[in-house]
Amino acid sequence: MKLLPSLSLTLFAGAFSAMTYADPLTVYGKANISAQSADEGEGNFTDLKSNASRFGVKGDVKLDNDLEVLYLFEWQVDLADASGSDNIKARNQYVGLKGHFGTVLLGRNDTMLKQSQGNIDLFSDYEGDIKGLWEGENRMSNSVSYYSPGVAGFTLGASYIAEDDLAGDDAQSVSLTYGDQDLKDDLWSASVAADFDMKGYDNIRASVQTKMDSFTLGAILQRQESVDSGVKKDGVMFSAAYTIDKLVLKAQYQTLEDDNSVSVGGDYKLGKATKAFIWYTDKTLDDSEDQSWLALGLEHKF
Question: What distance in Å separates the CA atoms of residue 239 and residue 226, rounded to the nearest whole number?
C-alpha cells in the first residue's frame, strides 16, 4: 500500500531535479479575439477574428567567455477560424549569441525596418495595421540579424536574408535607433531604416515617438520603390494615445499617395494582463471600393 505514495514522491523529486538543472525559459503568449462588423466593398458581414494570437517560449543562458545564448520559438494560433494544420503558423524563431560585440540571431525574424517603428503603430495586428497600405512589414526566413551594443543611446541593426536557392536574391535591412522604443527610460525615441530588395521593394522609413504626461505621439515617413517597375510612392502616418486611468484612447492616420486609412479606438484595462477594446477603421482606396470595420474584443496576455 505504501508503494504508490513512495513512487509518486520519487517521480516528483526527479521532475523537480530535472527542472532545477534545465535551462531557464519563459512561456508566454497572447489571446486576442474580436467580434467585427465589416464592409470590404461588397456589403456588410460579421465575423470573429483572431488578431495574431500567439504563444511561445524564450530563454537565455550564460556561457563561458562572457557570452550568452538566446533563443525564442513563437507560433501564431487562430482562435476563431482555422483548424488543423492551418491553425498554427510560425512567427519569429531563432537562436543566437550575445557578447561585448553585440547580439547575433540566426533563424526567422522581423527585418530591421519592421522593428524600427517600435510601438508607433497603435492598431498593429488589426485592420488598421500599417501593413494594410505600406510595404516593409516583413518577417523573413533565412535571416541573420545583428544588433550593436548601445553607444550614447544609439543602436545599429542589420538583417541579411540569404538567397536560399540559385534563382533567389539576397536582401538587406538596416536601421539606426536612438532611445528606448518602449518609452520607459526615455521620453522620446527615433529611428531611420532602409530595405534593399526586400520582397521586391526598396524602402526608406523614418520614425519618431514621444511621451508627454498622458499623451503618447508618434509619426512615420516612408518612401517605397518597386525594384522591377521603379514606381515610387510616399506615405506618412501619425498616431496619438491619451491615457485616463484604466482607459487609453487611440487615433491613427496613414496615407500612401491617394490611399488613406483612419482608425480610432480605446482600450480598457480589466486587470494587469487583460483588456477590453473597441476600434473603428475606415480605408479610402484610389483603385477599389472603400472599406470599413468596427470591432469589439478582448485580449489576455500570459
Answer: 26
